[in-house]
């Protein structure tokens, strides 16, 4: 057969190409062919980021097979003859990446798809909704984002839909309600917004619905009451409006209802008492008011009831004595009143009773603890009287007994001595009396004891040293306690905080043992005598020492000055002699040293830290000299120092005489021009040369002189350059004449406040109507300008800690405390080393003080001023929490306190981790989680629930909270 020439030329090429394809199949794909399912999974693997190599076994086998090759791979489930893939489980494999839209479309026989606990992101692939045989779809704990795609109703066999903890936004998908087979619906922990669709009341077989921790709003649809098959409903941690719909009382099978932290108002509907199968009811952290329905006593199945943090009033219903299955009763943070029903004590399953911060009166039920195994009792901050119920620990498992801030009397219950399960005892601020008769040797887990502000006597028990895990012990302000401090007490290895202020303790100061953990030691206002032992150098973790107002003598131990973390030392009102140890001057941690009213002599160390301290810390030591007291002088009356210093002193004296002469010559002219009007006066603090008022005022407006008639600076804030070239920020403060003294008092205290995280108030000039404050000018911008710049976690953490330290100094190291008053990102500025400094502190309060009463002096008298200071301190702490959130989210979450209090912490944490590019489960996550928790505590709605700045700082820096 003759072949045309064109075919002959093409034939070799055709044969060669076919051979190459054949050869490639042999080399690349063993078995010559790949089934489409295996091929699809390999394609899926190519899209997945698998840093942990979790899919290492997803490779082709070496021999040929008639079945699906992927059936042997991890996470792949096939039918009996391995001809179909019916399940795909990629959960908890540390996978990430983005899916293409139709990546799963070939798996039409798939029954179960589980992608949970990974880091898949961006949009959920809509091809999943073509898998019409799916019965279970679990995409929880990922980072899928955007709107939830439409089309979920195509999965008409779906029983479980779990999308918990993602980053979905926009409305909840209405069409999910069309899936009649659905039993589990979980859209919690994302950013869904808008109202709950009323269509969600039409599910036919739904058993579990979880929508909590989103940004849902609007009213809760009453149609949810039509969900007759639901046993578990969580819809809290959202931002709803209005009341709890009474229709929810129609959910006859409901066992678990959680609508906590949801901004709900109004009263609790009595119809909820129709939920006769209810086991757990959580309505805490809302704005509910009115009385607790008496009918709740009919819900015999109720085990956990938490109505805390609302505005509920009236009594605990007597009918609660019928709740025989109740284990948890929490009604704390309300306005409840009346007595605690005796029937509560007879509940056989009760293990947790939390009724603190209410208005309860009367005695606790005398049989409390007799009929149940109580674990946790907190009745603090009420008006309760009487004694501790004698049977409170009869069950033998009581771990926390919290009774503080009531009017309890009598001695400690003898039964407590045998309560070996106790971990925490807080009975401070009551009227307990008698001996502290506890058998501390029987408390192996006891870590926290606070018995302060009572009327105990008989001394500190010697067996306290037998409580091997005790960390915190406070018996302060028991004026008749008496006794001595034993050496064993201060040698307890676990002890971190020991406080016994104002207890009439006498005897010599005991030597220190190992004291490995001791951080705070407070023994002021006692009669302790003798010398402070050199063994205090054993306490290498000591941070704060208060021994003021005792009878101590001898020299201050050098070992105390050498402690690496010592921050606050108060030795005032004793009889210490000798010099101040020079080593204090080289301490990088020392913030306050008060040695006033002793018999110290010599030179105050000249280091910078001492110059920043107020002179009152050294008063009452006639033989002490140096900055900030009077200069030390030699035999010839000159200031002690080098020859060069002495020569300089003569020059300055001569110059001063000349200046005085010139001033005297000019004075007559100025006097007549001012015609007796009030003169400007100048006050300089550490760091500012001794300028006159006119020196300063002329530098503002370049006028030759300034008088009361021509006040300089029209604005309230500006930059100025003083005569020696110092650039300062100038702030104008005006006042009513009768408020002048009070305002000058606060300004002076502001000027003495010196801390590395505060801008300095260098000085001020003033007359009878106003003052100009001269502050450090820091040119590197403020936090508001830099907050949107993405920075590493270490930098953010450093910034937060610095802010906390500055604020803590104002609140706890200034006496009286100085409220910042206007803490925000604009008022946090950076120096040349990018160290944060708080600026504007005290200024807002000065303005407020001007409009306050004229009779009270700042911080010295009770009344409006004192209350105002307290309010401002609380506001500072709240604002600190807000600033933390801004820093953590690069400025995206500002004024976010409402959000953090009404959103699941897990959701916020995940958002912050994403914002900071932090991989979950990393070590940094725990640090961020801790800081986020502090922000949550600081922004609590009730001011009294917020931690002090001292507590907040301890938490942030990793120290165990002591409260």
From TrEMBL:
Lipid bilayer topology: Single-pass type I membrane protein
Location in the cell: Membrane
Record-linked InterPro entries: Kinase-like_dom_sf, Leu-rich_rpt, LRR_dom_sf, LRR_N_plant-typ, Plant_RL_S/T_kinase, Prot_kinase_dom, Ser-Thr/Tyr_kinase_cat_dom, Ser/Thr_kinase_AS
Pfam short name (any one): LRR_1
Domain Protein kinase: 669-959
Transmembrane segments: 12-33, 648-672
Keyword terms: Leucine-rich repeat, Membrane, Receptor, Repeat, Signal, Transmembrane, Transmembrane helix
Family classification: Belongs to the protein kinase superfamily. Ser/Thr protein kinase family.
PANTHER family per the UniProt record, alphabetical: LEUCINE RICH REPEAT FAMILY PROTEIN, EXPRESSED, PROTEIN KINASE DOMAIN-CONTAINING PROTEIN
Designated name of the protein: Protein kinase domain-containing protein
Organism: Datura stramonium
């Amino acid at each position: 057969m003759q072949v045309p020439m064109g075919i002959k030329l093409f034939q070799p090429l055709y044969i060669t190409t076919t051979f190459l394809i054949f050869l490639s199949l042999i080399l690349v794909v063993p078995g010559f062919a790949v089934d489409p399912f295996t091929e699809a999974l390999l394609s899926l693997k190519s899209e997945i980021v698998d840093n942990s190599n979790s899919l290492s076994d997803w490779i082709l086998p070496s021999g040929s097979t008639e079945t699906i090759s992927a059936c042997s791979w991890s996470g792949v489930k096939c039918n009996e003859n391995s001809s179909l893939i019916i399940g795909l489980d990629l959960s908890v494999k540390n996978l990430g990446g983005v899916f293409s839209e139709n990546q799963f479309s070939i798996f039409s026989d798939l029954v179960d798809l589980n992608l949970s606990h990974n880091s898949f992101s961006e949009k959920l692939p809509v091809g999943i909704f073509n898998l019409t045989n799916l019965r279970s779809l679990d995409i929880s704990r990922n980072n899928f984002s955007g709107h939830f795609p439409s089309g979920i109703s195509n999965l008409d066999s779906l029983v479980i839909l779990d999308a918990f903890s993602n980053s979905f936004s926009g409305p909840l998908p209405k069409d999910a309600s069309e899936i009649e087979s659905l039993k589990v619906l979980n859209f919690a922990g994302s950013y869904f917004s808008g109202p709950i669709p009323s269509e969600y009341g039409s599910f036919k077989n739904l058993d579990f619905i979880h929508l909590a921790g989103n940004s849902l709003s609007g009213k809760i649809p009453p149609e949810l009451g039509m969900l007759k098959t639901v046993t578990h409903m969580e819809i809290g941690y959202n931002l709803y409006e209005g009341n709890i719909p009474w229709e929810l009382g129609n959910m006859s099978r409901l066992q678990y209802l959680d609508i906590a932290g949801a901004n709900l108002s109004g009263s609790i509907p009595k119809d909820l008492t129709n939920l006769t199968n209810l086991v757990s009811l959580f309505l805490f952290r809302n704005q509910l008011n009115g009385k607790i329905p008496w009918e709740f006593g009919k819900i015999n199945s109720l085990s956990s009831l938490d109505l805390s943090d609302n505005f509920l009033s009236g009594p605990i219903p007597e009918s609660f004595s019928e709740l025989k299955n109740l284990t948890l009763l929490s009604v704390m943070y309300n306005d409840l009143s009346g007595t605690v029903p005796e029937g509560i004590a007879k509940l056989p399953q009760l293990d947790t009773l939390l009724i603190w911060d209410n208005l309860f009166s009367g005695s606790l039920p005398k049989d409390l603890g007799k009929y149940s195994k109580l674990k946790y009792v907190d009745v603090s901050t009420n008006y309760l009287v009487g004694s501790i119920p004698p049977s409170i620990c009869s069950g033998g498992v009581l771990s926390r007994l919290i009774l503080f801030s009531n009017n309890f009397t009598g001695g400690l219950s003898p039964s407590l001595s045998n309560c070996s399960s106790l971990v925490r005892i807080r009975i401070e601020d009551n009227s307990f009396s008698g001996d502290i008769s506890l058998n501390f040797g029987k408390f192996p887990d006891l870590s926290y004891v606070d018995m302060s502000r009572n009327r105990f006597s008989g001394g500190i028990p010697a067996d306290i040293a037998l409580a091997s895990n005790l960390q915190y012990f406070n018996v302060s302000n028991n004026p008749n306690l008496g006794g001595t401090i034993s050496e064993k007490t201060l040698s307890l290895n676990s002890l971190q905080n020991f406080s016994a202020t104002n207890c009439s303790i006498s005897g010599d100061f005991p030597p220190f043992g190992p004291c490995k953990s001791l951080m705070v030691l407070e023994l002021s206002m006692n009669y302790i005598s003798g010398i402070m032992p050199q063994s205090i150098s054993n306490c290498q973790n000591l941070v704060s020492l208060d021994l003021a107002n005792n009878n101590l003598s001898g020299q201050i131990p050098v070992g105390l000055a050498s402690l690496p973390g010592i921050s606050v030392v108060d030795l005032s009102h004793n009889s210490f002699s000798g010099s101040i140890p020079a080593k204090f001057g080289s301490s990088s941690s020392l913030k306050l040293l008060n040695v006033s009213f002793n018999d110290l002599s010599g030179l105050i160390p000249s280091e910078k830290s001492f110059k920043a301290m107020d002179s009152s810390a050294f008063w009452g030591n006639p033989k002490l000299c140096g900055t900030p007291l009077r200069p030390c002088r030699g035999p010839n009356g000159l200031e002690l120092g080098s020859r060069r210093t002495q020569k300089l002193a003569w020059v300055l004296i001569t110059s001063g005489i000349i200046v005085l002469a010139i001033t005297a010559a000019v004075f007559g002219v100025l006097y007549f021009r001012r015609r007796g009007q009030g003169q400007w006066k100048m006050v300089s603090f550490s760091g500012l040369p001794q300028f006159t008022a006119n020196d300063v005022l002329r530098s503002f407006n370049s006028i030759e002189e300034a008088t009361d008639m021509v006040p300089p600076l029209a604005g309230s804030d500006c930059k100025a350059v003083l005569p020696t070239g110092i650039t300062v920020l100038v702030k104008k403060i005006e006042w009513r004449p009768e408020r002048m003294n009070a305002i000058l008092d606060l300004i002076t205290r502001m000027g003495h406040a010196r801390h590395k995280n505060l801008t300095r108030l260098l000085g001020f000039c003033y007359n009878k109507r106003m003052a100009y404050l001269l502050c450090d000018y820091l040119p590197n911008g403020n936090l508001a300008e830099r907050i949107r710049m993405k920075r590493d976690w270490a930098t953010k953490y450093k910034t937060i800690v610095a802010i906390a330290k500055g604020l803590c100094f104002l609140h706890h190291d200034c006496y009286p405390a100085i409220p910042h008053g206007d803490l925000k990102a604009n008022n946090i500025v950076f120096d040349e080393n990018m160290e944060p400094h708080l600026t504007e502190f005290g200024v807002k309060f000065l303005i407020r003080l001007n409009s306050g009463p004229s009779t009270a002096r700042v911080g010295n008298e009770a009344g409006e001023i004192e209350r105002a200071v307290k309010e401002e301190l609380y506001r500072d702490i709240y604002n600190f929490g807000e600033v933390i959130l801004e820093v953590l989210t690069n400025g995206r979450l500002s004024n976010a306190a409402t959000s953090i209090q009404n959103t699941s912490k897990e959701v916020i944490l995940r958002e912050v981790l994403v914002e900071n590019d932090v991989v979950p489960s990393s070590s940094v996550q725990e640090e961020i989680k801790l800081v986020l928790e502090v922000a949550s505590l600081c922004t609590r709605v009730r001011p009294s629930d917020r931690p002090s700045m001292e507590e907040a700082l301890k938490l942030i820096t990793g120290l165990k909270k002591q409260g």
